[in-house]
Amino acid sequence: MKILVVNAGSSSLKYQLIDMDNESVIAKGLVERIGIDGSSLTHKYGKDTKQIFEKVTEIPNHTVAMNLVLEALLDKEHGVISSVKEIGAVGHRVLHGGDKFTASCIVDAACEKAIEDCIPLGPLHNPANLSGIRACQAVMPDTPMVAVFDTAFHQTMPEKAFLYGVPYKYYEEDAVRRYGFHGTSHRFVSARAQELLGLGEDSKVIVCHLGNGSSLSACVGGKCVDTSMGLTPLEGVLMGTRSGNVDPAVVEFIANKEGISVTETLTMLNKKSGLLAVSGVSSDMRDVTAAAKAGNPRAKVALDMWAYSIKKYIGAYAAAMGGLDAVIFTAGIGENHAIGRGMVCEGLEFLGIKLDPEKNQTCSGQEARISTDDSRVQVWIIPTNEELAIARDTLELTRK
Ligand code: ADP
């Protein structure tokens, strides 16, 4: 069966068509600047999806975007299927499932209503995700669809980990609590770690999803017991453009100083902070590292802060779980940045973490163990694949 995976953002739509017989990517692409001037579609197909077809055209909304995606998939020259009927099901990435979704679900009226109910928790993403779902329903009304939530994996956290120390009514009446994100990645990677390392029900694993957005999860027996992102993806470690943890009083201070609203201040903490703000160079780890190597002191401190914030979570989660069997690195930085992994693990020998410098250097981008043979805690790189995880859920649920 071929499954289409759709990740609709407010002004973008990413897709992958996956052949589930061998879990290979047949085509993938991106529609950018939906509803904005200069919108375009980039469609990749062929061997290793190296062939590229681009189209710059007016794309006013997600339905038009979805139509273009289907046109590209069906195109005589650049297409990969001859009929929409070849798409057996569609899997949609949805940001916020609140506490309503502990797993993926078939899209029906109740599911759509629940995604809508979660809009106050994900005001930017959930409406876009719904637009993606509705656009697909409009262009392929007979194809079954599945929603896969970024928050679902973290729903196994105990109350002591997910509650905030704020007046209880905000939890009871407004569902204000920690939810966590990147759940599809944390689930995929922790399940792979369980399998690969032959771990049992009491295994204690920390998954470090380190990309532009970053989060860590503490997993016991493959189930999440704590995670670093919170009500929104702003909480946790230092990220590309997000500050991660700050004293909430900083929000009041900046808002007063600049004469801006709380919302504007939070936009600053989400989009203009993190590596970008501290380094003054870039939000991209490659640029920050290059600048640090060239002697830029702010880039160097940004890199130090980044590693230090992750290291502190590893210590905290080892304490929370009462031990540690494995640390897993994944996502853009986690998979590819040897220097960053080295900085995070440095000084953690007391926890039983001993990185093999040579393996760390040479194994980037691959599934590999990068700790020494005598390291009590195993350290691994496990590349994440959120699209495949979404496609697998979609296959499983639509088969039933
Ligand atoms: P997103 O959260 O946007 O999905 P990714 O998981 O793709 O992010 O990660 C993007 C980050 O990964 C960027 O900071 C980028 O610099 C970093 N990255 C990608 N490749 C490398 C590399 N070879 N070395 C170091 N960092 C890398």
Keywords:
400 residues, alpha/beta, Nucleotidyltransferase, domain 5, 2 domains, 8-stranded mixed β-sheet, 6-stranded mixed β-sheet, 15 helices, globular, binds adenosine-5'-diphosphate
Question: How does this structure look, described?
Answer:
With 400 residues, the protein is an alpha/beta fold. 39% of the residues lie in helices and 20% in strands. The protein is built from 15 helices and 14 strands. The strands form two sheets. An eight-stranded mixed sheet has the order 5-4-3-2-1-6-8-7, with helices on both faces. The chain is globular. Adenosine-5'-diphosphate binds at residues 211-213, 240, 284-286, 331-333, 336-337. Residues 211-213, 240, 284-286, 331-333, 336-337 line the site of adenosine-5'-diphosphate.
Q: How many domains in all?
A: 2
> What is the annotated CATH architecture of the largest domain?
2-Layer Sandwich
Report mean pLDDT, rounded to a whole number.
96
> Which structural class should the secondary elements be placed in?
alpha/beta
Share of residues in helices: 25-40%
- Sheet-strand content, in percent, reads 15-25%
Radius of gyration from CA coordinates? 21 Å
The CATH class name of the largest domain reads: Alpha Beta
Strand order of the largest sheet: 5-4-3-2-1-6-8-7
Brief sketch in words of this structure:
With 400 residues, the protein is of the alpha/beta class.
Task: Detail the topology: elements first, then pairings.
Elements: E1 2-8, E2 13-19, E3 24-32, E4 40-45, E5 51-56, H1 62-74, E6 87-94, E7 105-106, H2 109-117, H3 125-139, E8 145-149, H4 159-162, H5 169-174, H6 183-196, E9 204-210, E10 214-220, E11 223-227, H7 249-258, H8 262-271, H9 274-279, H10 285-293, H11 297-321, E12 326-330, H12 331-336, H13 338-345, H14 357-362, E13 368-369, E14 378-381, H15 386-399
The chain binds adenosine-5'-diphosphate.
